[in-house]
Fold each of these.
Amino acid sequence: MTPKVRPKKSLGQHFLTDLTVAERIAATVDGWLGEPLLEVGPGMGVLTRPLLDRGHDLTVVEIDSESIDYLKANFTELEGRIIADDFLKIDLTALYGDRKFCVIGNYPYNISSQIFFKLLDYKDSVVGCAGMLQKEVAERIAAAPGGKVRGILSVLLQAWFDVEYLFTVDENVFNPPPKVKSGVVRLTRNSVTDLGCDWSTFRTVVKTSFGQRRKMLRRSLAGMVGSTVVADDPLFTRRPEQLSVADFVRLTNIIVESRQSQR
């Protein structure tokens, strides 16, 4: 008897039911065939099947016990490759060692941002990442400088990845249907190995800037840099969503140099 899987609101589960959409999402990682691929939250395997059919070296991580039982019963080729755990708690270095890998998923809406923040911790190992998430979050990740939806994730991810918003998915192809549309994105690791500034400080500057996104940077970053520096550099007259990654790198270096000169 095939185990039943009930969508659980607490896990942010909305199971994709349209096989055509699943095939389109699976096709987004065709360029990474041969690299180990980790699927997050496979549920009932609607995306898992086309990924396996394409020949991917696939491992899946799933927290829902009903989904795990279903996958074990219906995907015998995944024996030994079903990780019953919370993706946010997994040590991916312990899983892959020094190997490069890719990530894909129909990501649970309630933790999608956390998933991408976690991937930043493995930016030197992740060849690419693709999948579906809430349209609003997908658009934010891909937002160019100047866009109103540009935010912390936009800048941090675009520092290390080329980000593409690929297509939109309607609500009616899910069980249960979500109240919002979904968007499919693809992130491909760029050639950057040295950002040109301290990464930890860069993250702090970006997060602090967007913490008061309606204010000019001279006000939101007042506690990080001296007033003379703010007055001298026109960069501080802008708002965070207007800045490119390169602008934030320059801003970070200005702040670091200012702190050093005050010692």
Note: The beta strands are 15-16, 36-40, 57-62, 82-84, 101-106, 126-134, 161-169, 174-175, 182-189.
Amino acid sequence: MAQRYVRVRSVEGQIYYGLLLLSRSVQVLDAPPWLKGQPTALHLEPERYQLLAPCSPSKIVAVGRNYASHAAEMGGAVPQQPLLFLKPPTTLLEVGGEIHYPPQSQRVDYEGELALVIGDRCADCAPEQAQTKIWGYTIANDITARDLQQQDNQWTRAKGFDTFCPLGPWIVRELSPGARLQTFLNNGPNPVQSATIDQMVFAPEVLVSYISQIMTLLPGDVVLTGTPEGVGALQVGDSVVVEIEGIGRLDNSVATRHLSPQYDRLR
């Protein structure tokens, strides 16, 4: 089995990077693994930690319509160049966490995706060089308030709510180009999304190269590579699972977002 790199919070509240062992204990590293973190003598037993999103990026750069089938189902053409948008780091959500359905929206969708984790500073990189900057791979769910996306005619609000980027559960260093991505709703036996990642219009190294010619990617940054066809609505109470062969499964539930009392006074 491939090594699984995690980020955890101990019961004492300390946050660590580490290696998840077959026993489910975590061998703590002295730094993030892409910064050459080395194993320490500290081990955390399963009952002594909580899995977090596996990295803490300065930014999350996402790509729209990177599968031709998804572009078609959304009624749009395949872009001639990668279509980029940003999700704030506050959208991150760990495996098992609750996606909060915002009261501003009447249509919230799942979008299962492969996520890239950057391991080294990347600016103005050619695709061949960009490939060496991809440290590892994890799973993402690019949650989208679809009605707000259409209403605003741009994507910041629709993509930017807290909890709108489940990420995890861990990072692996290598992934088969033909790995299958699947999304399941409410423990259904049949996937609502199913595609191999080599069906992307723009390959991961092309995406990283393109982004690096616009903004510098830093160690720990995340690139979401787009979703295949089959996106659909979530409801409060739903469970959603995104699986990628060779990585694992990202499992989250949907709950109502409860706003603070000050919200009504701000409207």
Note: Residues 113 and 227 are 5 Å apart (CA to CA).
Amino acid sequence: MMIIGELINTSRKAIREAVEAKDAAYIQKIALEQVEAGATYLDVNCGNMIGQELELMKWLVETIQAVTDHPLCIDSPDDKALEVGLKLLKPGYKPMINSINMESHRFKTVLPLVKEFNGKVVALCIEDAGMPNTAEDRLRIATDLVEGLGKEGIVQDDIYIDPLVKPLSTNDGSGVEVLESIKLIRARFPEVHFTCGLSNISHGLPNRPVLNRLMVVQTMTVGMDGYILNPCDKNMMGMIYASQALLGKDKFCAKYLRAHRKGLYE
């Protein structure tokens, strides 16, 4: 299971204020808390800092790496910002690049970075025509992504398909679409991985944590093996470890028992 810790993102008010103030101590605190909570990668995203992103990406990566060698996921809509972050990463692990998709310009500009830095890559099911509406749309776009990346030497084990979770509040079929998409893509490409911004499912609805936690369980059941989320959410992480145990993916329930000892269950 891969957990990309989502908290270092300037779309979050507290993070934006810390970045604007160059409050390194706060950013480092958030980074270390996510590492301690079990994040596999730490996402680094300042994509909404228009006109400052290249400078701030450099500052963020250097600030985080001053206190931890934990793997980073460099996240930006700007390929130049991705390159800035990737060039600063310490050696010793495969970086994660967030993200590539089937929009012509995006695929063309991000692919060289995936190859140059030998990275894992989040591959979004988006194309020039826009976002997918059905599970079949997602399968078609995922096929283009996996085969297009494969032709360039990117192995399926380094590809993390994001099927695009849409809000349930705008379409009561959004949850089912994602579940069907994962099943279809998993059947076609058994060696690829998955990740997603899971909390999109509950946008605009009350009791969001309830929906998010149940969506984790449901998506894991059909093959989801990665998430972009807050690893400091103890209830969510508890659900993930419990689900792994129940799905036979936790030998001797070792992760579940460690989670119990850490107090992830009430």
Note: The first strand starts at residue 2 and ends at 5.
Amino acid sequence: MSPKQLHTGAILVADSHYAPWNPLFFDFLTAIAQGKITTSQLILMGDNCDLLFAPIHETLRLNHDIITLLNALSLTIEIIYLEGNHDFQLTPLFPHIRVIPRAHQPLVMEYGSNTIALLHGDIGGSWGYGLYTALIRNRAILVGLNWLNQWLKGAIIAKLSAQMQRKHHGYVIDDFKTIAYRPQPWLAGCNWVIEGHYHQNKTFHWDEYHYCNLGAFTVGGMYYTITSESALIEEYHYK
């Protein structure tokens, strides 16, 4: 299968961390639905919801409004959703959205002469992290966690939600350029890598490829559009 095409004007949004107490991403999607922001292609780069796991019913309740809005939008524009480490097991929720699980990332797309690897950013890492991510995405474990959360009258998700509300997303990673440079076999043939996860809003250029780490939408409403073959991507601020 040949790589899918990115469109001029495509919008990329990473780490919006939507929750009922953090509605900025909902407002942004509403602006798209109302035609105040126009695009034919929306790429969600993961962690667009703070806590969303399809088998855990309480997270569906917390995210009911954003799920409904995304499904309505997906009938009029193309939406691709790369699962993150805060939102996964999403396929049953979005029948008209192309959902890309962590195991199938990066998603390779083309724009003119550019071949671009898109990913949330949490692939790779230590053996321990790989095991952890596999376990938390296991459907049987999530079904069990859903039962336990219901038995405990929502205490588990309530505790996680409280932790998320206290989390600071505008952090700076020292020497991030060293962390960002990690050429992998899956980069063969790609001249751009675009990912979220780290919240750094940094672009680097190496001989092997160009690299862009997207800033977190939840910090200042940062989002990005595909502009031209030479520049490729441009930053905007919703609010």
Note: Residues 102 and 117 are 13 Å apart (CA to CA).
